[in-house]
Amino acid sequence: MYDLAILGGNVALSDSVEVADVLIKDGAIAQVLPSSGGDGAPARAGVHLARAKREVDARGMLVMPGVIDPHVHFGLRSRGTVTADDFVSGTRCAAAGGVTTVIDYADHVPKMTLLQCAEARLSEIRPLAAVDYSVHQNCIRIDADIGDQLAELRRGGIASAKVFTTYKDAGYMLEGGDLQALLREAKCHGVLVTVHAEDDALIEQARSRLEAFGRVSPTYHGESRPAEAEERAVGQVIAASKAANAPVYIVHVSTSGAVRAIAEARREGQEVLAETCPHYLLLDEGRYAGADARLFIMSPPLRTKADQDALWAGAAGGDIDTFSTDHCAFTPDQKALGRFCFDTLPGIPGVQTLLPLIYTYAVATGTITVGQMVKMMCENPARLFGMSHRKGRIAPGLDADIVILDTTAQHTLNGSELLSEAGYTPYEGMKAACRVREVFLRGNLVAAHGRFCGADGAGEFVRASQHLPR
User: Fold this and answer.
1) Could you tell me which of 298, 347, 343 has the C-alpha nearest to residue 207?
2) What pLDDT score was predicted for residue 47?
3) Residue 266: is its pLDDT beyond 70?
4) Partner of 433 for a Cys bridge, out of 270, 275, 364, 390, CB 3.0 to 4.6 A?
5) Architecture in CATH for domain 2-64+394-410+429-452
6) How far apart are CA 180 and CA 192, in angstroms?
7) CATH topology classification for 66-384
8) How far apart are CA 312 and CA 253, in angstroms?
């Protein structure tokens, strides 16, 4: 007997959308069968359907794999405080928004190996997370045994490392020569290096100029981290990747120049991968002119309309691989602790609104197809971070992470209705052309109609497969 049958929905498969029944047993997808009721109507008398403990009528709904957000920060300790969303509220937000797997970050702690750092972070997450999870392991130094540490990390089920080309004063920055060495070693051990790419020297120069003229309020955040800083760093990262003959993944791409450099490298045969975020696609630098500029401070900053156009073109053309949120939520009161653009806590909430925004402003507008959305939000992150054996597609044998999306229900985004402890959304008042109706994690209902109905601590660590199809 099947545990669950999701019937008659428009099921997003690898390369098509078909009216089908999804049959689930023991937390996994057992079968995907053409809907047997005719005209998309579920056949309740069918032999395979009569033996399901629970049936869900999904007629007229888009049925898609659970979304993977490959870039979140929950319970992040930063600048003397902690993000508003920990792994309880953060993963509840994720579930309500159709995100069934998140990838957070593990700090690189002194006198600990990479795997020890990752395991320490995973032990924090384990009793709290309501959705499935993994971590990227931060790497801020190259120890003499870095190759052995990367091999151990990979055996421990972690398939990616994170480095910064900025934040030198905070001790996060990895120098260029070290980046090339890390890329080379990481390739040998099947670890994908992800990079926050902004040029530290250019940022410091910009800060000095702004301070000299007293231009230090939150209004000047965009000028404090100029587009040129990202574009120069992306060029340097691409050069290091080429020299190491290794893949690299650039996080939260925000500028047209970066997209252009990535596209050119890809045309030359390099494996340069990239993500962008809804805030770079939908919000622009004009937000810094308002009284609530602090609420829109994140790094890199919001950019121009021209940058947005380039990012959309990159997504549509295949030069952007994934959408993430970089969810790093602070309350308005936490944001107000900073007086200047330099000391305002950087980060915004976003994990609950990721799917509605991308569907509304990318799919419903015809910019990308449903298939491209599923590829970028489900298949690609699963493939790149070693989860394809469990996640990313609606196919027999994979985890039954299923989202039922009502693409006829329009509503207005309102921060007071969302689950983030930040208490606001940067997308306040924007229209959404869909609603996340129900969300299943390994066959269990975890959210319905924007309400969380799962269990804290029910999430599982998704160990990366030992064989990564790049």
Assistant:
1) 343
2) 45
3) yes
4) 364
5) Roll (2.30)
6) 13
7) TIM Barrel (3.20.20)
8) 11
